[in-house]
Amino acid sequence: MENIIYNELLARGFNIDVGVVEIYSKNDQDKTERIITEVDFIANLGNKKYYIQSSYNLNNNEKVVQESRPLYNIDDSFKKIIIVKDDIKPRRDDYGITTMGIYYFLLNEDSLDA
Q1: pLDDT tens readout for residues 57-97
Q2: CATH number at residue 80
Q3: Share in percent of the chain as helix, strand, coil (round to 5)
Q4: Which of 6, 48, 52, 92 is deepest in the core (most CB within 10 A)?
């Protein structure tokens, strides 16, 4: 599924990078620990930028947290998107992260702006 998303972004003219997000938190011993997470795609086209995660499914809360965590910790206002296998229309959560189905993404040229 990641290859399909990558190829579609290329076909739409985007420059694509992989992102690394460092998250700092306190552990049980009150020591700071660093967690490194990855954003599957950073898609750039002119002044537009999208952070995109690819997830086959989000069938439990643990998976939702795993896919959303890097996006929650990016401190800018560019759009953050999770693309899943399920056939769903875009929906936005309380943190501004949009979740959409792969079919919607592929079949609508302006899907990233939905």
Answers
A1: 888 888 888 889 899 989 899 999 999 999 999 999 998 99
A2: 3.40.1350
A3: 25, 40, 30
A4: 52
